[in-house]
Amino acid sequence: MYKDSQYVCLFGDFNSRTGTLADFYDIDDFDDTFVNELIDFNEFSEIGILDALGIPRKRNSQDQTVNTYGRKLISFCKNNNILILNGRFLSDKVGNPTSRNSSVVDYVMGSANIFHKIVDFEIMQFSNLYSDIHKPIFLQLDCNVKTDMLKENTCIRNNEKYIGKWKHEKSTDFKSNINRDEVNDLLSHILEIHDDISKVDQNSVNEIVTNVTKILLDSAEKTFGVVTKDCRNSKEEYNNKEWFNHDCKNSRKRL
User: Fold this and answer.
1) DSSP string of 193-222, one letter each residue
2) pTM over 0.70
3) Would residue 109 count as lying in a domain?
4) Which residues, listed in sequence order, are joined to residue 40 by a DSSP beta bridge?
5) Alpha helices in the chain (DSSP H)
6) Full domain range(s) for residue 72
7) Which residue has the higher pLDDT, 157 or 128?
8) Per-residue confidence band for 2, with pLDDT thresholds at 50, 70 and 90
9) 215-238 b/e with 16+ CB inside 10 Å = b?
């Protein structure tokens, strides 16, 4: 079970088809009255948080198939207090397929407390620009980041440049800003390597990954812009005054 944080979120392709199997321990799963009297199954599940949020316990899924990986994933969820978002939350209450062949193999899952932080969750339309069979999944979280921690992690170098934050409403602009010529050149290069397997090595794979990254980052920069942060000027002038000590800093934070 997770111990270091009450907020755990897992996101990606698990190659697991879980149907509508329950991802939590339920007292109804155990018929032994003696065992039920000895064990409080609430200690092994945080499903009550879903009840408080009005989120259904039972998941829906348009994919009713269960495979070996699916059973293993369900066992992992039960043993670690991890709950699946797919099929029970926001616009995906029907359990939409996550791949073009109508299967559900991509999941967003996490501790019950993460449900408090979810603003939006959606299985989006398939696009062969981004994947061979997988549909994109959109997840928006409402997270409170401590200012001091943010400065420590981002202000490592002065005058550092960052691409602006992703905005879902600009996803169409992001697609249109992708350089089609560079994409076509990259595809031609991949086909060339595909036809001559002797050219496939670590360097060629790294080169392809680097080019894909560059294409996506260039589009993101055109769409969302660039932000420059100068950490040298981020502190107030009075921070170096003798009277601005630790107690004063804490008082300012409380104010």
Assistant:
1) HHH-GGG-SHHHHHHHHHHHHHHHHHHHHH
2) no
3) yes
4) none
5) 33-38, 47-53, 68-80, 147-154, 171-176, 180-195, 202-224, 246-254
6) 1-144
7) 128
8) low
9) beeebbebbbeeeebeeeeeeeee
